[in-house]
Specification:
Elements (H helix, E strand, L loop, with lengths): L1 E5 L2 E3 L5 E8 L9 E7 L6 E7 L4 E3 L7 E6 L3 E6 L8 E8 L5 E3 L3 E5 L2
Parallel strand pairs: 2-11
Antiparallel strand pairs: 1-3, 3-8, 4-5, 4-9, 5-6, 7-8, 9-10, 9-11
Length: 116
């Protein structure tokens, strides 16, 4: 499985940005995998934002539930929609696929910068 993140950019506070994770080599609707969005702010550790299962169930890290939403399309793509962005949302955003027996795939990461 390969994951390709896109949608990086520089946005101003309070704006909206959508990130896309395109999946190849596997189906985003298979129940084998669990698809996550993770970010890493500058100088900080990884933070789990949320995930969508193969069946379409969505889970969020509670502090981010009000501003972030995760969805998917039949085109094997996962989306992270981010609203009302703040500078604290800046960082590198990753998509990740986890499966049984320790299967763990990461995308290359995409940069988001929120600055006035």
């Amino acid at each position: 499985v390969q994951l390709q993140a896109s949608g990086s950019g520089l946005v101003k506070p309070s704006q909206t940005l959508s990130l896309t994770c395109t999946v190849s080599g596997g189906s985003i609707t298979t129940n084998i995998y669990y698809w996550s969005c993770i970010r890493q702010p500058p100088g900080m550790g990884l933070e789990w934002m949320g995930a969508i299962s193969g069946s379409g169930s969505v889970y969020y890290n509670p502090p981010h539930k009000s501003r972030f939403s995760i969805s998917r399309s039949v085109r094997n793509t996962m989306y992270l929609n981010m609203n009302d962005l703040t500078p604290e949302d800046s960082g590198v955003y990753y998509c990740r696929a986890q499966g049984p027996s320790g299967i763990d795939y990461w995308g290359q990461g995409t940069q988001v910068t929120v600055s006035s």
